[in-house]
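**Tokenised fold:**
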Amino acid sequence: MPLFVVPTPIGNLKDITFRAIEVLKTSDLLLCEDTRRAIKLLNHYNIKVKMLSYHEHNEKSRLREVLDMLDRGIKVALISDAGTPCISDPGQLLICEAIKAGHEVDALPGPSAILPALVMSGLPSSQFSFLGFLPEEKASRQRFLISLRNLPHTSLFYVAPHKLKRDLEDIIEIWGDRRAALVREISKIHQECLRGFLSDILGGSREVRGEITLVVDGLRDTAIEEEDESWQKVAVNMRKEGMPIKDIAKILSESYGIEKNRVRKFVLGRERMEEGKDESRE
């Protein structure tokens, strides 16, 4: 028996396929990220099915139990709170282990915030990268953005509302001010798409609520050809965070193609200059 992976609406409850409803109705067990949210969808379509919570905090402990059910021929369907499981949601571990155990995985097509946001942004869509949520820790976030700053195609991020300002500032600092779109509450009553440059979105940002997808333009050829000194600002901020100079030099050398010695000289020179300013004030 295959494991069924079923996308669910990200807003409007009508955004679900006939096949998804059929699979949910005929399943023996529904794995839900949050049973309280799942019941709203099930009640809307008059679906009666046994539910079992399956989320990031219990997916390892539930794994053996679910695999045993699949072995016994029980029809199991996996959903997340909204959208497609595994896309910044639980499910990847179960899918990998089910495949290892010899089970097929039947992933149904359906709702996801990524493609609607990309299309609504108006930015190039022939090639794109989905980068998920940015890392929590600042140094990790900076390293992540530095490693991907030269992507020539459109990038998409998921953003928590209370971290919007932080993420926008970091992206502008490391990637520069690019064309972008902030798309929120897709398919819901308050759906909104703000287009412009990253600085426009940051400058006009208010208290934003709901599910946010940030779409950012790729690095243009003209920008690559110009001498780019933005690494200096990144180096200064990394040093302020307490990162050792050797680590800064290594990261920027790998990401910007700058000689490590050049980075070290810049950081040390700036620190000597700052020390000199402090002494002159005394």
User: Anything to note?
Assistant: DSSP finds twelve helices and ten strands in the chain. The first helix runs from residue 18 to 26. The CA atoms of residues 25 and 46 lie 9 Å apart. The longest strand covers residues 154-159.
